[in-house]
Write a structure and sequence with these properties.
Layout: H1 7-10, E1 15-19, E2 30-33, E3 38-42, E4 48-50, H2 55-63, E5 67-71, E6 74-78, H3 82-105, H4 115-135
Parallel strand pairs: 1-3
Antiparallel strand pairs: 2-3, 4-6, 5-6
Helix pairs in contact: 3-4
Length: about 150
């Protein structure tokens, strides 16, 4: 999937590292380390058990067809097929962190975002751009996700 990411989002990135999840799911899913110019991605199991969560994550999961059910103590998340979780992870986690890297990489050229909320919004906008370009690929022509 990285082959379809525009070079400007990868430029200057030192590495993308896959790590085993050390704690609760989603704490975090991924993180960008600006000093190292590195993205760390944390593993997720096939079935997730989450405490109650914010609307952003719920909306994101539903957008990519996750089956989210209330269970005792929180939520259970299942995916109809592995591919849906893969696409969700690419968009919601990796592309978002690539957006953070891009904003940091070109912060002198583009105005620096003001505050954490603004930084997250900018990263999400870049994630949408990356994902939109990715879906133009012929092998993804049959996948229809409302981003």
């Amino acid at each position: 999937m990285l082959r379809r990411v525009p070079d400007k989002y990868l430029y200057g990135l030192s590495r993308i590292e896959l790590r085993a999840r050390g704690g609760d799911i989603g704490r975090p899913f991924g993180v960008y380390l600006p000093d190292e110019k590195a993205i760390l991605l944390y593993s997720v199991p096939e079935v997730w058990h989450l405490p109650r969560t914010g609307s952003w994550l719920l909306n994101s999961l539903h957008r990519f067809y996750a089956d989210v059910r209330e269970v005792e103590g929180g939520l259970e998340v299942r995916w109809p097929e592995d591919g849906f979780m893969t696409v969700w992870f690419f968009y919601a986690v990796l592309a978002h962190e690539l957006g953070r890297h891009y904003a940091e990489q070109y912060r002198r050229k583009n105005r620096q975002p003001v505050g954490v909320v603004h930084e997250e919004i900018v990263a999400d906008l870049h994630a949408r751009r990356i994902f939109s370009e990715r879906l133009e690929a012929p092998q993804c022509a049959q996948l229809h996700v409302a981003v």
